[in-house]
Amino acid sequence: MKKLAYFDTSHEMPLEIIMAAGFIPYKIMGDVHKSNDPADKYLSSFFCPAARSWLTEALAHSKEWAGIIFAQGCNNTNRHYDIWKVHVETPFLHWFGAPLLDSEAARKYYKVELQRLIGHLENQFDIKITSEKIREAIGKSNEIKKKLKSLSMLRSQKDIPNRDYLAAMIKCLTGPVDEISSWLDSEITLWSSRQAFPSGKKRFLLTGSDVTYVEWMDTLDDCGIRIVRDDLSVGERFFATLIPDRNDPLDSLIEYYTGIPKSATRPTIQKRLDYLYQSLQETEVDGVFSQNLKFCEPYAYDSVPVNNALISRGYKVIHLERDFSPAADQQLANRLMAFVEMMEGGNNG
Amino acid sequence: MANVKKSGDNTGKFVLKTLPHSQDLKWPMLWWISMEKIYRMLPWKKTAWTCAAFPIEIMWIYDIFPDHPENMATVAAARKQSQRLIEHAEGMGFSRDLCSYCKTNIGAYDTKIKKTLGGISKPDIVVCTNAICDTHWKWFQIMADKMNVPFFMFDIPKWVSGTDEKTLEGNIDYVVNQFYDLMVFVEKHTGKKMSEERLHKVLGRSMELSDLWREIFEHRKAVPSPYSGAETSAAFFPLVVLPGVEVGINFFKKILADIKNITAKGEGTMPQGREKYRVMWEGIPFWYRMRFMYDLAQYGAVIAFEPYTYSFAPVKKKCLTVEETLRDVAKLMMDTPYAYNLERRIENFEKWIDEYKLDGVILHENMSCRPSSAGMVDLAEAIMRDKGIPVLILQCDMNDPRAYSEGQIKTRIEGFIEMMEANK
Question: B378 vs A86: CB contact, 8 Å cut-off?
């Protein structure tokens, strides 16, 4: 089965349509170990380094994919579609206009966009995407979401290094769905048998820009920080809710995708906060780590009101900006370690 | 250093001629400022914050005063206040990488700076759109929450390269449905009611205003250029907040008459025989350093065309029914030249280069406006390839003077002028 790649700055792409079309949904996440020089021929260095890495990946690997779908996400990268259209070789490039709102008008529009995507895929690949196939894909998707949720809940109970969780997420967003499902079963068994949560670590909720490389999660572990909850797209937002069962599977997808916990690319800030409050109520944490990838505007805007709101509720919050690099950032690590030490000393930080 | 002229010292410099009625811009400005005072004084009147590409006419239809944070941010920059306001916002936690308009506005509101310096007051409602950028709604929502004011956002689908007619129709349907949501929102939060008669009256005036601006642009094709970007960057003010009212129309009529008069005499904004290079400026000007446009004149270069001010003049027509009118406006909201996709940008830029007989293009790669800066490399390459004229990509910022490096920009401009000269 061939991969059909998608460009998605959060969790807006209805993967179930790709699955129903007979492809492996492959989330483009770039490679932090490779230079962005190929993409930098077309984009200035003040654009999101992750998105430049995605373009670099596509320039090198697009021929391995059946096609590419862009899901409307962060406004700063939406216009990259035009650049990809010129420079990335692919037989199939589709713009999926995922609405920003969740109103009745937005839901109607979502359906129009779903039907357009289906029609385009059917024409391009000479296939039929039936309701049955979409329903089947929804079933598989929900199965993975449920298993990921079980896996993620083990983070606050067991000794699960931060990198293991992120690696599992990346695998689930890039690999063949059927293989992933059985792999998740074995991981749940494996993680359940691990040692209890290490006493020397602090439990944190991670919020802000998406993290797409494990080295950065290692840095957090090195600083005594264990991520037990998050509100990332390559994270809990992917499996926070299940796709409901409705007569028309497109209605199921509409309800799900317009109702999932919001990323910073979607209104409202209050909805994001409500989700964070809910997570923080469900799981006791020592602190909240808000991080922003350099030039990631949506989260940079949100970080001020979101962090202020969390602090006003008594949560210990640290906010840092990070680069897109696998190298350990010692300055960042020093600040994190100091924050953890202050917590240990009873200081609110 | 002794030879370096101080700012404002025009000894020995070419001075761009301004149109006889250019000073009349003060009347629409004073009218707008006075109107705000009246609207804030009378309890039954309402005020709103609006943004670029939002159909301002709707506010005038509902008799709501449209205040404009971006416009006030440019005032702050022109009055040399923006840097301290931006730094104030950064002190509140907003990143250096965020939009300088937004931070100027946040700083202006938080420090309660005077209106004449770019200050802005709390409105009754905040309405915006993402037609230009998502920054608009992020920023407006943050401020609406801060001020505890009802917030409405228009979600405008993206008209990406290659969008077909059928997709476009679906996009228009979505926008039209949101017009009805907007009406419900406005009526709920202001108690105002829609009047079809007023809608037609306001749209009629809006259309006249835009038509006049477009006619002005037709006359800007004349050689020598009668009206440069140095003047239009201020004169387009009525298009920002006054589409739908009479006062801007009178001003544009006088400007148009002036232009016709000087082009009939074969005169231009540059001294006789001094216009050597006709340049397109793409992007938002450096509001804190408007002298930049006059500095260009010292090299014989004139900004003969700029898509930015042209963008503010979509011709919103009165159609047979309200539904048809809304569909037309919806399409225009998606089709603003400032937010053209790469294909449409290349197509239109090349057309304008021919029509305005341009010798070069300056693309402002604006660190505060990443959406507009995306694709500039491809745009530049296409223009150089297809039209054979030089293109300069100038990285800077519209409202943050910290991004402006005098020496570096001068060097780059001089290189660009040399390329245009070599290309003659």
Answer: yes
Chain B residues whose beta carbon lies within 8 Å of the beta carbon of residue A308: 93
pTM of the predicted model over 0.90: yes
pLDDT(B2) > 70? no
Q: Is the pLDDT of residue B403 over 50?
A: yes
A43 contact residues in B (CB cutoff 8 A): 374, 377
pLDDT of residue B12: 62
Residue B12 lies in a domain: no
Reported as a single tens digit per residue, the pLDDT across B306-347 is 999 999 999 988 888 889 999 999 999 999 999 999 999 999
CA angle, B153 as apex, B132 and B99 as ends, to 5°?
45
To which H or E segment does residue A225 belong? strand A225-230
> Would you say residue B226 has pLDDT above 80?
yes
Spatial separation of the C-alpha atoms in residues B113 and B327, rounded to whole Å: 40
Average pLDDT over residues B34-52: 96
- Predicted pLDDT of residue B229: 96
Q: Do B342 and A303 touch (CB under 8 A)?
A: no
* CATH architecture of the domain covering A3-132: 3-Layer(aba) Sandwich (3.40)
Does residue B2 lie within any of the structural domains?
no
pLDDT of residue B11: 55
| Closest residue to A85, CB basis, from B153, B161, B365 | B161
Nearest neighbour of B142 by CB, restricted to A294, A301, A319: A301
Q: Which domain holds residue B363?
A: 22-423
- Which chain A residues are Cβ-neighbours of B166 within 8 angstroms? 116
Cα-to-chain-centroid distance, residue A302? 17
Q: Which residues of chain A have pLDDT under 70?
A: 346-349
Inter-chain residue contact B370 with A76, CB threshold 8 Å: yes
Does B118 fall in a domain?
A: yes
For B247, other C-beta atoms within 10 Å of its C-beta total 17
Q: What is residue B4's predicted lDDT score, i.e. its pLDDT?
A: 35
A85 with B181: Cβ contact below 8 A? no
- B122-163, pLDDT tens digit by residue? 999 999 999 999 999 999 999 999 999 999 999 999 999 999
Q: Do B135 and A101 touch (CB under 8 A)?
A: no
Sign of the CA dihedral B406, B412, B413, B418?
positive
The whole-number pLDDT of residue B3 equals: 38
Chain B CB within 8 Å of residue A92 CB: no
Contact B367 A46 (CB under 8 A): yes
Give me the total of CB pairs closer than 8 Å, taking one residue from chain A and one from chain B.
157
Whether B98 sits inside 8 A of A74 (CB atoms) is no
pLDDT tens-digit readout, B73-122: 999 999 999 999 999 999 999 999 999 999 999 999 999 999 999 999 99
From chain A residues 250-269, the ones with a CB under 8 A of any chain B CB are 264-265, 267-269
* Cβ-Cβ contacts under 8 Å, B180 against chain A: 105
| pLDDT number for residue B7 | 42
**Cα distances (angstroms) measured from residue A213 to each of A53, A148, B289:** 12, 18, 42
Counting runs of H as helices and runs of E as strands, what totals does chain B give?
A: 18, 8
B344: which residues sit within 8 A by CB, 6+ positions away?
Answer: B159, B161
Q: Is A90 exposed, middle or buried, given 0-12, 13-18 or 19+ CB atoms closer than 10 A?
A: middle
CA A117 to chain centroid: 22
Q: Which of A290, A304, A310 would best serve as a mutation to test chain B binding (most B beta carbons within 10 A)?
A: A304
* Structural domain boundaries in chain A: 3-132
Q: How many domains does chain B have?
A: 1
Is A45 an 8 Å CB contact of chain B? no
Question: Is residue B254 assigned to a domain?
Answer: yes
